[in-house]
Write a structure and sequence with these properties.
Pfam families: DUF525. It comes from Flavobacterium sediminilitoris. Strands 4, 5, 6, 8 and 9 form a 5-stranded antiparallel beta sheet that branches. The chain is mainly beta.
Amino acid sequence: MVTQITKGIKISVLTSFEGTYFKNYKINFAFSYQITIENFSKDSVQLNSRHWEIYDALNNIEIVDGEGVVGKKPVLKPGEKHTYTSGCLLSSPIGAMKGFYNMINFTTTKSFRVIIPTFKFSAPFALN
């Protein structure tokens, strides 16, 4: 598990290899990731948007920006957490993701960025 805390918000990530798939006459490697967002600050916060940088071993980089996470913009009171699962397809059996969440602090009404630490993907057969 990879974890990081930014401004009292803890991000924890677990990854899993889901299998190989053919898409557009090309093999793809499917991975899932489970992210838990925990609010250790004294203020209520809301996740508004996300930014991802997705890398594979073939030097392909995909940038993904979007609202919320899996269709939600969770509000976290102090001590609360939100967990969700998502996934990605890579062109190689090894890769990584990193990014950030844009959040708002309801007490100060200020927006802030929470870092999502780099987490790695690897198919079990790809490593010795």
